[in-house]
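Same chain as my last thread, 526 residues:
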Amino acid sequence: MTVVSNQNNTPETVEMTEQQLSELLQIRRDKLAALCEAGQNPFEITKFDVTAYSADIRREFEEKEAAYIAENGAPEEGQGIELPEPIEVSVAGRMMSRRIMGKASFLDLMDTTGRIQVYVSRGDVGDEVYAGFKKWDIGDIIGLTGWVFRTKMGEISIHTTSITLLSKSLRPLPEKYHGLKDTDTRFRQRYLDLIVNPEVKRNFVIRSRFIKYMREYLDNRNYIEVETPVLNTIAGGASARPFITHHNTLNLDMYMRIATELPLKRLIVGGMDRVYEIGRIFRNEGMDPKHNPEFTTVELYEAYADFHDMMDIAEGILSGAAKEILGTYEVEWLGEKINLAPGWRRLTMVEAVREYVGIDFDAISDDAEAVAAAEAIGVELADAAEKTWGNALYACFDQRVEEKLIQPTFITMYPVEVSPLTKKSPVDPRLTERFELFVCHSELANAYSELNDPLDQRERFMKQVEQRERGDDETEMLDEDFLTALEYGMPPTGGMGMGIDRCVMLLTGADTIREVICFPTMKPEK
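reply #2:
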C-alpha cells in the first residue's frame, strides 16, 4: 500500500505495484530534472535561517492571544484572530499533506517539534512561485516565512509571504491512513519510521534526557567520566561470548569489549577514586525483546564504598530520573504498574528463595542436600561440576524467583560460584556482596563490593579457566595484567553496571529493546 495524490493533492489509498512505484519514482526524478534545467536545483541550497519551531509558535501565539482576548474580548463566532502585532516566523520542515484550492492552498508542515498548518496564496508569493509550488510533492522539504494567525476553523496557522523548496523527496512516503506499522521495516528504516510515526521520537528524547540526568547525578557526586578501549586482547569483566576481529598491523586477533569493568578498576588502583563510563558493549549473543548484540551501559566505581552505596545510587538515578523526566514515579511497563518512588525492597537471595519457593538454604549446609532440594522442585543444574550449594541456590532463584519480581527489588548476597569478581561475605564465605536490581522480572543493574584480594582473584580466575576448558566459552578469561594491578593494591571499592537501554524501556513503557535503540541490529535483507 502507498499513497498518491490526485490533481488536488488529496491522498488516495491505492494498491501499489512495482511498475507503478517505478513510474512514481521516475515522475519525481523528472520534476527534479526540470527544476535543474530551470536553474532551481534545490540541492544547491546550503542554508535556510530558521527562527521558530511549530511547538514554540503555538505556545507563543496562545499566550499573546490570551492577553489580547483579555483586553479586547473574544472574536465573533466563525472569525479568526490576527494579532495587532503579528508574530513573524521563518520555519522549515517536511510537507506532509496539501490541499490546493485554486489560488490558495493549505499544507501541513512537520518540523522537529511537531506539525503546523500553513496557508499559501498566489497573491502573496507570486504567480511563478505558486505555479512551482503546486508541482512539489508530499515529502518535499521546504522553508517559508510568514506571520501567525488563527483560522476561522480555530487552527493556529502560518500565513506565508515567501516559500522555497529546500530538498526534493524522490520517493513517496508510505500511505497516510495506515502509516508504517511493519516493525521490521520500522526498525530497519528508522528515518522513515520517524517521518511517518513522529511519536516514536519520544523514546529517543527520553533516552537522551535519561543519560543527561545520569551524568549530572554522578558528576555532582564528584565522579569523573572516562573512556576505556573498545578493542582488547582479552575479553574480561563479564561472562559473555565476545565478537572477534583482527588487527592487520599487529597480526593479532582482538575482542570487542563485553564490559568496561577491568579497565575502570585499573583506574581505581591508580588513584582515581570515582570513575564512570557510559558506552557501547558488544556481546555475541542471541537477540530477543531484552537483548541486542550491541547495547549501552554505565559502569561506575567508587573507592572506599561498598555494594550498599551502589544500591543507593541505582535507586537515586532511576527514581530521580522518573520524577525529573516524566513528572511522576508511576510508570507502566510490560503490562504492569510500577512504582519507582524511593524505598525499594532489598532481599538476600536466600530470603527470596525462601519466600517465593519455600526452600530455606540457610538450613542446608551440604552440597548434595542443596542439589536434591533444587531438583525436587524441577530446577535443572548443568552438570556434575556445577552441583554445589551455591549453584543450587542460584538455579532456584534464576528459574523460580526472578519471573515473580515486579516492583523494584534488590536481590543481594549472590553465591561465589556466579560472582567471580565480587568480594566474599565476611559472614558467610559461600556468598558475595553483590546485588542485581530487578523491575518487572527484568535485570536493570548489577553491582558488587569489588574483590580486591589478588590471590583470591587469581584462584577464581583459574576456576573460570577450567570452565572454559570444559567448553563454556562465556566464562572469564585470565587477565594477568589486571592481577598485576591488584597486586599493587586496590582500596575497598563499590562498583555497578546499569543497562541504559532497559532503563529507557522502563521509562518509556517500550516492550522491546528495539524501540529504544535508534538503529537496532537487524538481519540483512536479501
